[in-house]
Amino acid sequence: MARIPVATYRLQFNARFTLQDARKIVPYLRELGISDLYASPLLRARKGSTHGYDVVDTNMINPELGTLDDLTELRGELDRHDMGLLLDIVPNHMAVSHENAWWMSLLENGQNSRFRHYVDIDWRDGKLILPILGQPYGAALEAGEIRLGSDADGFFFTYYETRLPLAAQTYHLLLRQSLDGLDDEAAAAEIRDLVENDSVIANSRFLKDAISRVREQSPAFRSALDAVIERCNADVDTLDALLEAQVFRLAYWRIASETINYRRFFDITDLVGVHVDNPEVFELHNQFIFGLIAEDVVTGLRIDHIDGLRDPVKYLAMLQMRLGDGFHVVVEKILQRGERLPASFRCAGTTGYDFIDAANAVCIDPAGLRKLTDAYRAYTGLTASYEDVVYERKKQAIEQLFAGEMRALGTTLGQLADADRNARDFAPTELL
What we know:
Blueprint: E1 8-11, H1 19-31, E2 36-39, E3 43-45, E4 55-61, H2 68-80, E5 84-89, E6 93-95, H3 101-109, E7 128-133, H4 137-142, E8 146-151, E9 154-159, E10 162-165, H5 172-179, H6 185-196, H7 198-202, H8 204-217, H9 219-234, H10 236-244, E11 248-252, H11 256-259, E12 264-265, E13 268-273, H12 279-294, E14 300-303, H13 312-323, E15 328-331, E16 349-350, H14 353-362, H15 368-380, H16 386-401, H17 403-417, H18 428-431
Parallel strand pairs: 1-2, 2-5, 5-14, 7-11, 14-15, 15-16
Antiparallel strand pairs: 3-4, 6-13, 8-9, 9-10, 12-13
Helix pairs in contact: 1-2, 5-6, 5-9, 6-8, 8-9
């Protein structure tokens, strides 16, 4: 039988407040009249995350919060006090991070990655744009901020704490140089075989393991490879050429709004949109959560940022088909006054922002609005109505923060218009 929460209490988990800490306060929460614990995201997030919405792995508990055993113990304590566990999950996006295996595969393999259809990237220009640089690309390169390195997991670039893998197809550019003057004939033969074998180059994991093994066995090869990396880092042109051969392109963060070619969470470039409407992605992204629900560890779900999904109606339908219509699901959705949650949303309702807005209004003297408006107009000199200001600022946000998204939308609309003889002569910007 489905559990319907009566009174929830939200806990924000992070390294300073863990699952064990939460277990200790369950009796106190029950005394307050709380029926269900409402937990912030518990899946593995970027290291040091204070909120958990920058998920990097949806198939494990965040180790900074505790273990699966800790979560099971927390659930046991809740059960002893007849309480449930409502869990916040993040289907819309994941963190752009070297800790995210999906993202690293895309950086390394581009459109050949098995995760190509897992995240929302526009590959029409052939490269993934990464607007992460603190200054223009050329200046960052010449300042030595972008460095080449290698370890057991292959070759990579670093930009401060950011790690970026090299495409396996570009390894030969470095390995051939390591053969020059290499006085270990056995090592040289192995590396030569790797470079000249296309099937090996296509298998990046095998290639990396083979290089790592030769490097471990041959001090001469290790020294030769270190020398190649050192020479590359000392030569801006060589580094530039190597970067140009990758499937990603580094860019200045200030041009993100115009050049970005992956869907973000609003304008946050280090959160990438996930194609959770894809059935394969849906299952993989949620399999750990489904397991927790099957074991009765989690008794309800709160869906973060439902409007960010490509198809929220489809997602909720897939979720309820998987869990059963009786399972308690609420969504984070901001409703305007007078707006109702669409009947097509298969869920128990929203997280209550609309109720908070109504409750907040009870505590406010409406007569104060005129005084604030008069003070605002006197200070700014603006005479426009509130509605006009809102409209203009919305347009400003679209133009300044989402120019890249609007351009991509215009291009897509242009492609659709090509099939219509009455629309094909409109420019993409006219179709928006």
